[in-house]
Amino acid sequence: MKFGIVINEGPYQHQASDTAYLFCKAALEKGHEIFRVFFYHDGVNNASRLTEPPQDDRNIVARWSKLAEEHKLDLVVCVAAALRRGIKDENLAPGFRISGLGQLVEAGIQADRMVTFGD
Amino acid sequence: MASIEVGGKSYETDEEGYLVNLAEWNPDVGNYIAKEEKVDMTDNHWEVVNFLREYYDEYQIAPAVRVLTKAIGKKFGAEKGNSQYLYDLFPYGPAKQACKIAGLPKPTGCV
Amino acid sequence: MSDIKKFMFVNRKAPYGTIYALESLEVVLITAAFDQDVSLVFIDDGVYQLKKGQQTKGIETKNFSPTYRALDGYDVEKLYVEKESLEARGLSEEDLLVDVTVLGSKEMGELMDQQDVVLSF
Amino acid sequence: MLHIINKSPLTNGSLDCCLRVAESGAILLIEDAVYGATKGSAIEGKIRDAMGQFKIHVLLPDLEARGLADRIIEGVTTVDYGGFVELVAGNKNCQSWL
To answer: pLDDT value at position B108?
Structure first.
């Protein structure tokens, strides 16, 4: 089955990104496909390469990049939300790309299920 | 921050030349931006630009091209309600170019 | 992409206190371009998004409430408000800035069941 | 239909709203909503009532993280992330009551 994922909250402030990550990992382990992960609202902050958590904490951004690399995930950051919050190509972590809201709608059309994680 | 000089007054713009403060707009500023864009403003051009400003005043957004086309057709006649007509007036697109001349914000959320 | 899906946007948050209402509206405007079956529902504090007479000068924030009136031009015509939420806030249809269909909770639930994609922000 | 709740029902109205509007189907409590799945809370009765109409699940890792895995209300089913995935896949659609 093809899943589309929406993440509306940034890392560390809210559990949404953690839950979404563990959901994606479990779905992939079960042989499902993640069609796209769309980062919206403060969720765009999950894509900041400049994030430096303490070493004894999980690295949420790096974890997404790694999962994307291993499974060829499409991590899309909403351009309108990103520009509002200072996320640009220059500070984008590996595996993420910036694109329009149409990518969210398209995920809704293409995926069998859409799951939203947020506050 | 960039700026443009029109009639001895300075207007702030963003890097792409969109007016920063929408309230500062006046027809001279529109004409100036049009010249920069190499658009020769005719009555037909002003019709669209003025329509965009009225639309923005009323709804606080610049309309999507599809919505603009339909609305123009309804208001000014079917022969004007098609994207060919609008692209002939504004070769770089009614959303980008006409909005810029009208002093409206850059259309975001591009598909 | 010829298949048409039923998209429902569930608005349960008030405007201005958080950005969710505004960014939700932005998604709706984009979705309109994809020729899908779009409905918007307003439940709980989401009904405050449609309150007439919003004046945002004092908080130096853009008033995006007039944009709801543009939805019709975008062919987004299905706007539903939950009756219970409206009543719980002392509001009636006359307080709203657009025409909506008022539904009881259970009718709202049935409508939600029929959707393909339910998005809430 | 699957209804996902992520806020503590003791301080937030999301679960109430879901119970008022939703017809039937499954409810999954995740993140801070897992407090709703525990015995002895002020809303235990509400959860028990809802069981007649909905199948209620709780995300166990979230409950364990909060030190309450030993207090689950009888009849609430625990799932791990894999079970969460299957719930989404097994229902026609889902809604996150954010």
So the answer is: 62
